[in-house]
Amino acid sequence: MMGELPAAREHLEQAIALYDPERHGSTAFTFGQDLGVAVLSHLVWVLWLLGYPDQASRRQAEALALARRVGHKNTLRFALMYSAMAGAYGNNAGLAAEHSASLLELAREQKFDLWRAGATVVKGWAIARQGRGEAGIAAIERGLAEWTSSGAEWMRPLFLSLLADACALSGDVRRALDLVGEALTAVERTGQCWPAAELHRLQGQFLTALPNGARPAEASAALQRAIQIARSQSAKSWELRAATSLARLWRDEGKHADACDLLAPVYAGFTEGFATPDLKEAKATLDTLRVNRVHASPPPAICGLLARRRSSAVSPGHGRGERKDSLGRFPSTQASTRTRRHIRTCGLCAPGQGSQSARRITSVSTSPRTGCSKPCGIVPTTSNPR
C-alpha cells in the first residue's frame, strides 16, 4: 500500500514459499481468510504493478484455485475481490465484470455487505466501460456509499478513480477532475501511495479533455508527475500508462520525436504481457509515432542541400558548379554517401532488415529526390546513424 513494490514482492514470495496448506489451513478461521490466498492475492497486484502482467495472471489463477480448495467462504470472497480489482486496474473490463459478478452472487447469499459494496463498485465500472455509462455510474455511487458507510478507507482512492473514469467516459470531465482531487487527498490521508501515479495520470488526461478548453501545460505537468512517481516506486505498468498518455499529448502538439523517445524505452522495458490492453495501446501509439516521425518535414539543412543539388545538376564528386567544403569534400558526394548508408540501414529499403533496422535511423524525413532505389522516400537527417 505504501508503494514499496520491490520489497513487497520479496517478502510476499518468501511468505508463499513458507506457506503449507496442511499446517496453515486453520489461519482462515483466525484471520478471516487463508494466509496463502491472502499472500497470493497481494502478490498479483505487486507483480502487475512491477510490469509482469502474465506472471500476475498466473498467480491470480493460483489464488482462486487455492481459495476454492480451502473451502472457506470468506477466503473465496477475498480472492474474488482482489481478482475483480486486478481486472479493473489492469483495464480489463471483461475480467472485472466476471469476478465482480461471482462475488456479488456469493456476497448476496451470505449477506456480507462490505464485499457486496466493493463488487458493486467494480461491476459498475465494468458496465460503464462496456458502454452503459449512466447505469455504471449509478452502481459505482451506490457501492461506494455502502463502502464508505462501513468506515473502510482501504481501496477508497482506487474506487474514486474508477468513478472518475466512468464520469469522464460519460462526458462529465469536470466531475471526474474533482473526484481525482478527492482521491489524491485520500492517498495523503491514508498513506495508500500505490495508486498515486495513476491518479496523476488521470488528472492529466482529463485536463486535456475539458469541454471549454484543454489545459495542455497543466496536463503535461500532471503526466510528468505520474511518470516520476511511477519510477520512484518501480511501478512499470503505471509508468507505461502515463508515458502513453503523455506521448499522445506531445504527438498532438507536433512533438513526434520527443513522444517517441519518451515511450519507446518504457515499452522496450517489458518482457511479457504484450496481449494486455495497456501494452497493445502503447504499441499502437508507438507505431503511429514512428510513422509520423518518418514522414516529418525535412529539416532546413537537408532542404538546402537538395536545392543546391537541383540547381547545379552535376554528378556527385565531379565538382562542376559546386564548391568544396573546408575539408575539400563535395556536398553532393556526402549526400550520396548518406543515401547509400540509408539503403543499408532502412527497414523499408534493405530486404529482410525489418523494423529493427528502421529503428537504427534516429531521425528521418521524406523527399522525392532521395537517390534510393526503393519507394520509401526517406532521407537520413544524420550522417552517423546508429
From TrEMBL:
Residues 313-386 are annotated as: Disordered. Residues 353-370 have a biased composition (Polar residues). InterPro entries: TPR-like_helical_dom_sf. This is MalT-like TPR region domain-containing protein.
